[in-house]
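It is worth pausing here to work through a concrete case rather than discussing structure prediction in the abstract. The textbook approach is simple: state the sequence, then state the predicted structure, then interpret. We follow exactly that order.
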Amino acid sequence: MRRVLELSPANLAVRLKLAAAFLRLGQADSTLRDLEDVERMRPAPPREAKPRLTAALQALRAGKLDQAGLELDRFLRLMEVTAPYQASLAKVDWIEGPLAGRPVLSFNPQSLITMRGISAGPDTGKVRFTDVTGESGLPDLGGPGTALAWGNYDQEGGENLLVGWLGADHQPHVALYSVQGGFFADVSSRMPLPLPAGAVFVTFVDYDNDGWLDVFAIGTDHRGYLLHNNEGRRFEDVTRKAGVGDVHGARRALVVDLDHDGDLDLLLVGGGSTAVYRNNLDGTFTLFPNADGITRGGSDAAFADFDDDGRTDVFVASENGGDALFHNDGVRGFVDAGAELGTRSRAVAVGDYDNDGALDLFVAGPSGGTLWHNDGTGKLTQAQRLSGGTGAAFVDYDNDGWLDLLVTGPHGAALFHNDRSGHLVDRSRLLPADVQRDSIGPLLIADVDGDGDQDVVLGDSHGVRLLRNDGGNAHLAMKVQLAALGAGNGKNSSFGIGARLEVRAGELYQTRVVTAPSTPFGLGSHFKADVLRVQWPNGVPQTIYFPGTDQDVLELQQLKGSCAFLYTWDGTHFRFITDVMWRSALGMPLGIMGGNAAYAPAGASQEYVRIPGDALQPKDGRYVLQVTEELWETAYLDQLRLLAVDHPDSVEVFVDERFPPAVRGLRLYQTVHPRPPLSATDERGTDVLAELRDHDYRYVSDLTPLAYQGLTEPHAVILDLDQDAGRPGTLLVLRGWIFPSDAS
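Step two, the predicted structure:
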């Protein structure tokens, strides 16, 4: 089961079965770790099952394994009948007998059957977009559609569509629809939206990183509205508390983590100038009028790492002045790259249209549109002139693995197909004739009917229209959903917004930037991708080999925020010893929790680390040590020395590795006759001596984490060290790993 989870870490069924197996073996810590992973997975357990999971976690943290077993069994029985559990179970079962429809492929690379039953290049003329608005359940709204948003607010399997429009009474309205199999059901009465001024812009956004999609909207009254999602039960207006009501004339907002601190900010565009509401991750936002250097106002904006330096850049399209690309330099904020890309633009879309790994741009205005090629350094050159408009989106409508383009505006919609040579060819004939000429407002791309290809939702003069993609699923597609873990991370938003995704399937290579909870990849003639690589916003890379089609990707928990790692050769393999160079952290804040503004001293750069004798053995006549930088940091050192300490085997030698305070110089602590504590209990009276007695990687783990990495609820360990403790010649030696908190 561990091997399966290496290949499919988000497989709910396998993770629950592994947790149950660990509990039967009495391995409480491993059970707790797996159940905490389950708690963070999306979709969340149904309401009926969630109390059982909470009770199991509480029992494990209290060391009550029998009670935890009962609660876990109840939780499993409730989960076994849910669709996510059944789907995850099916993903690891090989289906015997004849194949019907698309193959169900195992996650085991050895049993992967590579079948080439799909032609390499289907005739795109067989793809059609069919207007199915009437049969889908979408009503004639009697007025123009003004805003569209797509997301799963209740985590119950189906997606949701949020619509804003002006009715026949010239009053603003909003509605929320549940979508199942391409059919829409109005759920506004069950889940009312407190948007009294309707919406000229709306988006789903998890602003508080709780895993539930909230709503941000700009109303017809030119004010912002933030609605908090109370676990799918209701939307609560928290605009006043959040402080986002004044949008300075903006007509839309870009949801992006501009400062790489793990929460999503709001970049406001459409007003006289660009502004940003910086997310404080406490339910409030702080307004920065000049958006940290994004000084030009605009009508649209897009984000990506255009120069491949690991930081999010922003492009602003302006109808009142020149378009501008702003590079994030990580120190001063955003700096105008000086690229003159035209004027009077209304829309921008980001995508790697030529599959060279660099994210390109399409910029459009009423007078025309331009496709800009990125050389990988952020330098943009004009590649092709196309028709213009006020909306644009890259979309791989035929799943061939190459991004196509849809452009919309007051004179209709135009569709361009990618011929795989870096050229876009007009295929507007695939759209309904009236869509090619009627005025189009908001634009949304999504797999509405769940058949594996991308459909189109448009706002027009009658409300909302659904254009179903017929034939685009002749090629398979892979859907990637990221679920960031709050623990061990701290710098990724819950759905990994801003992450860079790379997929290789045979000769086909694609790059995307994550802008929504789900990111599709067409696989062309391939049934399966070979490699998926995730570059998380916090800089941590993750590579998954042989991901399945429709694969959900869960970020594996990794330590972050520490320093370089030290490994030694122990005779059979490299062994992790500890992290090093803690004392050299330039500018690390100290004493923040106590209200002090002190920083780590620059001179505290010398440290000594103890390496046990059995952890360092010769390899080909040499001692081999490795210092690795596996995190998104800059490591530096002037000198690294190995000191040998010869001592009797009856004597243990230690050095003081604490930080802070920094210990000056080298002092060896020589000890004999080590004694464990007589007893050890936590603040609740639970016996934790077994976890502390030996260096066996078992430790006190029933701590309650808070919102920020490295911080927990106050806790205690009470030791009885016997009557000799504290007398001359005695020494208390503690060994532990301090899970680091973030500096910002």
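Step three, interpretation. Residues 151 and 160 are 5 Å apart (CA to CA). The two ends are 37 Å apart (CA to CA).
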